[in-house]
Each structure stands twice: as structure tokens, then as C-alpha cells.
Amino acid sequence: MHIAIITSGTLPVPSVRGGAVEHLVELYLKENEKNPVHEFTLYTVDDALLSQKVKSLYKHTKIVRVKTLSLRYRLGRFIFKHTVGKYYSNLYLDYFIKNCINFIKKEKYDAFLLENRFEFVLPLYKQNLRPIIVHDHVERLCKMQRDLAVKISKACVKIIAVSDYIANQDRRVYDKGHILTLHNGIELEKFQVKGERSKYHLNNNDFVVVFFGRLEPIKGVKELIDAIFILQDIPALRLFIIGGNPFHEGRYRTDFVKDISKLASKLGDRIIFSGYIPYEQIPDALSCCDLSVLPSTWNEPFGLTVLETMAAGLPLITTNSGGIPEVVCSESAILLDKTSPDLASDIATSIRDLYKNPSRLEQMSIAAKKRSKLFPAEKFAKKMLDSLSSIQK
């Protein structure tokens, strides 16, 4: 099948600027190179790092770079802003999909795969560009206005959700048997490394707790920092925070990042911020840690960072959040109540218990690695390609 993939319109694919969704797209594109099933044309925002060399990685995927950085594109968006009556989503996404459609109408496709953008469904559908599949990574459809959400869901022939949690939320809107679950996967072999702690200003005798993820209030990093304040009586304890601003490389700091940095500075070198680390270096950084704490206070759609820390063999303290219980098991993780008014205290108690119990820590590490093997990249990618093959032309 010849399938058009329309990316989210925010970060480029290949994932030269990071992004979980963008990296997952790469996984099934790579699998399709090894065992060709489809011919893809991928529409992505432009980026200076998307060189011709990157494009040449794929023989069965044509990459169309929508020139979002050009003066002509920006001028067109300005005109669009003052002529369009109503947005499907917002100015930036609506103008991106408008440009994608201009390219798409010049070609012939058997299906259209939208990565994490229900907002793009109706613009395509109204142009008779069908069948439409949405790869759903977040809890968005059920939060739309009801009539609009039903209309969007009916226009899709298939919705591929990253967890049962997301699939069940989508079914609340409209269910004609077209919603399925496909859990994410990761390249497990990349996490079998051992880094040098000195590279990250960590000592060999430190007990290193790691937070890995976007620095946003909903990720629970503030509560984790509060827990470290409670644990000041453990001299060896260090908190290593890997992450940056949402969807950016740390090129600027949000007010929230400034606030938690100021709070963390009161503990001196007990808390270390790595800043943005390219994805390929994440396994090295995680390998220098003893325990992962990811205390999300929102409903995580899947919990990809949870899986990645498990693959690195890290015992886990996390929350009963969204799709996370589908990823972990009781032997590998401590699940806390994300709604607890004493979440910081609960985190501190769990860290202290594991610090005092090295044998349990080791058992959890073994269980984490074992559990992570249920989510290999190859399994995800093959099932993704198979699910697309089942679409009726």
C-alpha cells in the first residue's frame, strides 16, 4: 500500500529534535526498510538538521519537508490568519495541514495515517482524502466538544491507541469496533550499556535517584524535589534530573523550570540537572543511576520513560496513572496514588525503604529488565505495519 503519513506539525521526523511520537514513527519506518510492506510518503515540518543524508536513510519512505521555516510559508500563514473563518485546531496546525493537503492532492494514496492529530481528520475527510487512520498517543478525543469528537471518530476507519487506557477513553466518544490497542516499544538493546558516573558529576558511592522526562508540573518533578528535602538525613542521596522544557531542547527556561531550579538550589549538589540530552545518550545516563522515580500526577497515555528506565534495569517508583499500570508489574515497581495530598511524603517513604533494602532493590532491577522485554521495538513496529495492511483500500 502507498500510505501518506502526516506527522504532528510540531517536531520533525526523523526525530532530530527529539520527541517520543517522532521516535516511534522512526521505529516502524526502519522496520519497513528491513521487511518492506508499504511505500510511505511522510509529511513533516522542516528543520535545518533534516539534511539530504538523513533523507537517504529510507528507500521505501519519501520525506516531504513542508517549508515551515521559509519566508514564503510565514507570509502565507499571516494571510491565512486574516482570511480563515474558524480554526480546526489553531493557526499553526491548521496552516500546516492545509499545506500538506496541497501536496497530497497531487499524488494518489491508499490510506492516510495521522500521527497524534485528530484535528487533521476533518480537513482531510472533507477533501475526500480517505481512508483515515489515527495513531493516538494522548487523551484528546474525549476532551473535545462531544458532537465534533463523534464526527471525527466516525470519519476514521481505525484508531490505534498506545494503551488500553487511551483506547477506553476513545471508546467513550464513539465505538464501531474500529479502536485497537498497540503498546509502544523501544530498542531494548540500546539500554544494555554502562556509563561513567563522573561524566554526570556523580560519585561511585552516591545513591542516585533519577527523574527522566519533560519538566512540567504534571510530571511530578516538584513533588520529587520536595521528597528529597525530606530525605536530607541520607548523605549519599542524589537526585539526577534528566529532561528539559516541553518539546524543546532547553533553549529557554519556562517559569516552572526556573521555580524548581531555584528550589533545588537550596540543596546544593544533592540535585543535578542534566538539561536536554539527545535521545541516543539517554541509556548511558540512565545506567549511572540506582532508582527511577516518575511520579506523574496526570494520566500518562502510556509511560514511555517508565519503559525506558525499566529497560535500563532500574527499580521504579511511579503512580497509578493512565496507562502506566499496563507497563509495569508489582515486582518491578512501587505504584503510588497520584491523587494523594501527601505524594511527596509517599515518595520519600518509598525511596527510604528501598535505600535501606538493597536486596529488594536488586530483585526489582531484575524484574524491571524482564518486564521490559515484553515491549521490543520490533514487536511494536511489525504490529503497526500489519494493522495498516488490514485497511481496506
Structure description:
The chain has 393 residues and is of the alpha/beta class. The chain has two domains: 198 residues, Rossmann fold (3-Layer(aba) Sandwich), CATH 3.40.50; 185 residues, Glycogen Phosphorylase B (Rossmann fold, 3-Layer(aba) Sandwich). The protein is 37% helix and 16% strand. It has 15 helices and 13 strands. The strands form two sheets. The chain has a seven-stranded parallel sheet with strand order 3-2-1-4-5-6-7, sandwiched between helices. Strands 10-9-8-11-12-13 form a six-stranded parallel sheet, sandwiched between helices. Helix 1 crosses helix 15, helix 8 crosses helix 13 and helix 11 crosses helix 14. The longest helix is centred in the N-terminal third of the chain and has 15 residues. The radius of gyration is 22 Å and the shape is globular.
How are the strands ordered across the major sheet? Answer: 3-2-1-4-5-6-7
Q: CATH-wise, what's the superfamily of the largest domain?
A: Glycogen Phosphorylase B
Shape: globular
By DSSP (H or I, 4+ residues per run), the number of helices equals: 15
pLDDT < 50 runs, ≥5 residues: none
Instruction: Just give the CATH class of the largest domain.
Output: Alpha Beta
Query: Could you tell me how far the N terminus lies from the C terminus, measured between alpha carbons in angstroms?
Result: 8 Å
Summarize model confidence as the mean pLDDT.
94
CATH topology of the largest domain: Rossmann fold
Largest sheet descriptor: 7 strands, parallel
Q: Structural class, judged by helices and strands?
A: alpha/beta
